[in-house]
Amino acid sequence: MNGAPGALLWNAQGVLEQACALEWDPQGRVRGIYFQRNPQKLAALTTTPAPGSRG
């Protein structure tokens, strides 16, 4: 999300349920964890799991 490293999480039916992004400080520690669960915003990311993923 917004260019930050993170993960997309699908439910057992293969529907994208949430996205998680991490923000890091200059020392490499996690400074923030952001979740997005709004279905309208998730639709802009992707709608199917990547090949070979566990989604």
Structure description:
With 55 residues, the protein is mainly beta. 7% of the residues lie in helices and 38% in strands. It has one helix at 39-42, and strands at 6-10, 16-24, 30-36. A hairpin with a 5-residue loop joins strand 2 (16-24) and strand 3. The protein is elongated. The mean pLDDT is 83.
Average per-residue pLDDT, rounded, comes to 83
Question: Helical segment tally?
Answer: 1
Secondary-structure-based class equals mainly beta
Helical coverage, percent range: under 10%
How big is the Rg? 12 Å
Strand and helix map with partners:
Elements lengths: L5 E5 L5 E9 L5 E7 L2 H4 L13
Antiparallel strand pairs: 1-2, 2-3
List the defining traits of the structure above:
elongated, 7% helix, single chain, mainly beta, 55 residues, 3-stranded antiparallel sheet
How do you describe this structure in short?
By secondary structure, the chain is mostly beta strands. The chain contains one helix and three strands; from the N terminus they run βββα.
